[in-house]
Amino acid sequence: VEALRAALKDGTIDAIVTDHAPHAPEEKDVEFRNAPNGFCGLETSVGVILTELYHTGLFTINEIVDKMSCRPAELFHLDGGTLREGSSANITILDLDKEWVVDSSKFYTRGKVTPFNGKHCKGQAAATMVDGVFVMKDGVVCKK
Prior knowledge:
Elements: H1 2-10, H2 25-28, H3 45-54, H4 61-75, E1 91-101, E2 120-130, E3 133-137, E4 140-141
Antiparallel strand pairs: 1-2, 2-3, 3-4
């Protein structure tokens, strides 16, 4: 873990991204080498990263925003990761001090398998906009 943190800090690792790979519990409840890769990271990534990297003082909020938004958009040639005029208004508003506990039974996604179930986190996405339209506010997905 320390080597990964150091590689992220020095730029050896370019970005923090999630592999939203939901699997049913019975798919994962097999011998490790036979289990499918991945788990739902979408609903936990911001909280876990803020808890483990920002609130521990290892990374600044600017470094985290760069690693989770700006740099992935740049690497994958996406119209995002910036607030420049004319760019897509894809924005996540963070509550850096929101304390919460991961409860996979409350996930919006149907995939409930996560290694973080029960983890105490500090920091959470308060709202998300896609193309300038709110798609989530206070943990609730907005209706179209």
